[in-house]
C-alpha cells in the first residue's frame, strides 16, 4: 500500500501500552497514535483522565517506545487548561509528534419529553465527547499555543477538530499544524471533501505564491499577540453596504 497506516492504541497500564505497541507494529502499522484523550472511557486509568496528567503521559510514551520502534504521536485532550505542559511530557517520553485535539467533554442536549441527555442508551445518558465544526476554534487555539511555545516550536503537530473545507485546513496549517486529520466531516459529507480540500489548497497555494504546504505552516502566528499588545489608539466606525443590507437591525441591536 502507498498510504500511511496509523494505529491508534490505548491501555490501562504500562504493560498494556507496551504490548499494544508491539502488536500493532507486528501487524504492519507505519505509525502509532497514543490516545490519551478519549472522554468516553469506563476506566479512570484511560483516555482523557490520562491526558490531563503529564506524569502518566510521559510514562506511557516511554512504555510505547519500549514496545515499538515506530514513529509515535501523542493525542492530546482539550479538556485541560494548558496543553503545552502535557505535550512537553509526551516529548520527554519519546513521542515524535502531537495530535490535537480530541473531542470536548459535553452534554450536547436534553430530550425535553424524557428528561434524558442525548444520545439515550437504554433510558440513560452520559457525559460524552463533542466533535465537528463547533470545536474548531478550540483546536486552533491549542495548535497556536503549542506551536509558539519555545520548546515545541519545531515539534510536529497533526491538527484535528472541525476540519470540513480547504479553508479550515488552511487555517490549521497557518497556525502550525504540519498534517491534518478529519473524521466527523467525512462522516457527515463523505470522502469527497478530501478531494475538495486538496483541490482548494492547491489553488490557494498558487494564488498566494507558495511552492509547498510547508511554506505556509505557522505563518499566522506572527500576527497573534497578547491582548495587552493590541493597538487600541484608534476608533473603528461601521460602514454599511446598502446594496446588501436587508434591514434586519442586527447591527443596531449589537
UniProtKB/TrEMBL annotation:
InterPro entries: 4Fe4S_Fe-S-bd, Aldolase_TIM, Dihydroorotate_DH_cat
SUPFAM superfamilies: 4Fe-4S ferredoxins (SSF54862), FMN-linked oxidoreductases (SSF51395)
A GO term from the CC aspect: cytoplasm
Domain 4Fe-4S ferredoxin-type residues, every copy: 236-254
Enzyme nomenclature, EC number: 1.3.1.1
GO molecular function, one term: dihydropyrimidine dehydrogenase (NAD+) activity
Key words of the record: Oxidoreductase
Domain of life: Bacteria
Annotated Pfam families: DHO_dh (PF01180)
Catalytic reaction annotation: 5,6-dihydrothymine + NAD(+) = thymine + NADH + H(+); 5,6-dihydrouracil + NAD(+) = uracil + NADH + H(+)
Keyword Oxidoreductase: yes
Function: Involved in pyrimidine base degradation. Catalyzes physiologically the reduction of uracil to 5,6-dihydrouracil (DHU) by using NADH as a specific cosubstrate. It also catalyzes the reverse reaction and the reduction of thymine to 5,6-dihydrothymine (DHT).
UniProt similarity note: Belongs to the dihydropyrimidine dehydrogenase family.
Complexes and interactors: Heterotetramer of 2 PreA and 2 PreT subunits.
Protein name: dihydrouracil dehydrogenase (NAD(+))
Organism of this sequence: Escherichia coli
UniProt lineage: Bacteria, Pseudomonadati, Pseudomonadota, Gammaproteobacteria, Enterobacterales
Amino acid at each position: 500500500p502507498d498510504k500511511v497506516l496509523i494505529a491508534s492504541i490505548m491501555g490501562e497500564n504500562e504493560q498494556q501500552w507496551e504490548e499494544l505497541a508491539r502488536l500493532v507494529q507486528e501487524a504492519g502499522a507505519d505509525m502509532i497514535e497514543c490516545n490519551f484523550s478519549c472522554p468516553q472511557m469506563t476506566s479512570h486509568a484511560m483516555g482523557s483522565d490520562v491526558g490531563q496528567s503529564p506524569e502518566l503521559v510521559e510514562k506511557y510514551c516511554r512504555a510505547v517506545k519500549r514496545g515499538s520502534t515506530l514513529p509515535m504521536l501523542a493525542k492530546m485532550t482539550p479538556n485541560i487548561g494548558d496543553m503545552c505542559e502535557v505535550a512537553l511530557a509526551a516529548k520527554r517520553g519519546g513521542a515524535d509528534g502531537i495530535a490535537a485535539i480530541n473531542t470536548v467533554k459535553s452534554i450536547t442536549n436534553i430530550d425535553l419529553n424524557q428528561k434524558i441527555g442525548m444520545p439515550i442508551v437504554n433510558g440513560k445518558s452520559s457525559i460524552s465527547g463533542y466533535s465537528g465544526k463547533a470545536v474548531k476554534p478550540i483546536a486552533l487555539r491549542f495548535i497556536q499555543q503549542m506551536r509558539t511555545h519555545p520548546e515545541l516550536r519545531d515539534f510536529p503537530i497533526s491538527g484535528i477538530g472541525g476540519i470540513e473545507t480547504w479553508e479550515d485546513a488552511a487555517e490549521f496549517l497557518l497556525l502550525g499544524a504540519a498534517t491534518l486529520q478529519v473524521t466527523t466531516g467525512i462522516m457527515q459529507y463523505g470522502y469527497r471533501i478530501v478531494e475538495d480540500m486538496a483541490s482548494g489548497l492547491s489553488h490557494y497555494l498558487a494564488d498566494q505564491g507558495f511552492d509547498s504546504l510547508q511554506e505556509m505552516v505557522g505563518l499566522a502566528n506572527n500576527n497573534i499577540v497578547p491582548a495587552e499588545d493590541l493597538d487600541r489608539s484608534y476608533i473603528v466606525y461601521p460602514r454599511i453596504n446598502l446594496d446588501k443590507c436587508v434591514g434586519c437591525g442586527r447591527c443596531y441591536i449589537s
